[in-house]
Amino acid sequence: MRTLRSLFTLTVGVGILSLALTGQTHGATDQKSGLASSDLATVDHLLTTTRSVRKRLDLTKPVEPEVIEKAIDIALQAPTGSNNQNWHFIVVTDPEKKKAIADLYRKGADQYANSPRPDYGKDDPRTKQRDRIYESAGYLYKHLHEVPVLVIGCIEGRVEKEAQVRQASLYGSILPAAWSFMLALRARGVGSAWTTLHLIHEKDAAKVLGIPDTVTQAVLMPVAYYKGTDFKPAKRLPARERTHWNTWGQRR
Questions:
Q1: Alpha-carbon distance 19 to 43, whole Å?
Q2: Are 8 and 21 in contact (CB under 8 A)?
Q3: β-pairing, 87-92 with 215-225?
Q4: Do residue 127 and residue 12 come from a single domain?
Q5: Highest mean pLDDT pick, 3-12, 69-78, 111-120
Q6: Considering the domain boundaries, does residue 99 fall inside one?
Q7: Does residue 84 sit in the same domain as residue 35?
Q8: Number of CB atoms found within 10 A of residue 194's CB
Q9: What confidence tens digit (pLDDT) does each residue in 68-92 have?
Q10: Which of 30, 83, 121, 176 is positioned for an S-S bond with 78, CB 3.0–4.6 A?
Q11: Alpha-carbon span 190 to 159, nearest angstrom
Q12: What is the pLDDT of residue 25?
């Protein structure tokens, strides 16, 4: 199977993902989506195999600033509430600042480790994956300061004491952009992970990076080229069990 990197560097001169998303390719077209079937398969592969990469981050290979900037440029095409476009990305490459953020992450992780865990049952895929995820998270815990780039997605405003609709609107304007950033990186052979544990000490992180009190940090993403190419879809709960038609609990 061809790797994503080869899929996105075909000699058409423009990345196939960009073409697929604009419907400007040739070949058999899916009547419902407007995408050529080969492009639809590529986009589906990207969406279903972009993982939070931890143990496979290449800690020794620098990530070019141009790659980060292009991924952010793509990310800013994500939805934004009321067209405010009040998102920000803090790119951290300074070793001392990376260490300071990593230390806050580890401090938060230590606190989180003592919190209760849900019991899903022995046959639940989340239970079966737990040890592997803990091992992967433990690796990131030890090596976060060594990751070439740390990126924090932020948004203007504070909504901790606001109504739920305000909170949803604020976070709904940064989280899609952060996910688009991760997808854009993956299409370029660069891995990342979604982490939030440093937010337990958000104010301390803000001091390290000079982030204003009026800005909310939403996610910390370690960024590095990844090792290997064999990312696969994760084992998830069946979509049918999480889909409700017209009324909660109603299946189709």
A1: 10
A2: no
A3: unpaired
A4: no
A5: 69-78
A6: yes
A7: no
A8: 15
A9: 999 999 999 999 999 999 999 999 9
A10: 176
A11: 32
A12: 43
- Global pTM reads 0.83
Residue 25 belongs to what domain range?
1-49
Outline where DSSP puts E strands in the chain. 87-92, 149-156, 190-192, 215-225
Q: How far is CA 113 from CA 1, 54, 106, 141, in A?
A: 39, 18, 10, 12
Residues 149 and 188 in one domain: yes
CATH of residue 126: 3.40.109.10
Number of domains, the chain: 2
Statement to judge: residues 22 and 100 lie in one domain = no
In a domain, 237, yes or no: no
Whole-number Å distance between alpha carbons of 203 and 54: 25
pLDDT value for 234 = 86
For residues 79 and 32, membership in a common domain is answered with no
Of 19-23, 55-59, 139-143, 198-202, which range is least confident? 19-23
For residues 169 and 81, is the Cβ–Cβ distance under 8 A?
yes
Q: Report DSSP letters for 48-92, one per residue.
A: HH--B-STTB-SSS---HHHHHHHHHHHTTS--GGG---EEEEEE
Decide: residue 243, CB within 10 A, 0-12 exposed, 13-18 middle, 19+ buried.
Answer: exposed
Q: What is the pLDDT of residue 32?
A: 60
Does 9 share its domain with 67? no
242: in domain: no
How much is the pLDDT for 34? 73
Res 38: pLDDT: 84
Instruction: Give pLDDT tens digits for 129-181.
Output: 777 777 888 999 999 999 999 999 999 999 999 999 999 999 999 999 999 99
| Spatial separation of the C-alpha atoms in residues 147 and 93, rounded to whole Å | 9
| Together in a domain, 114 and 161 | yes
Structure-token pair, residue 2: 């061809």
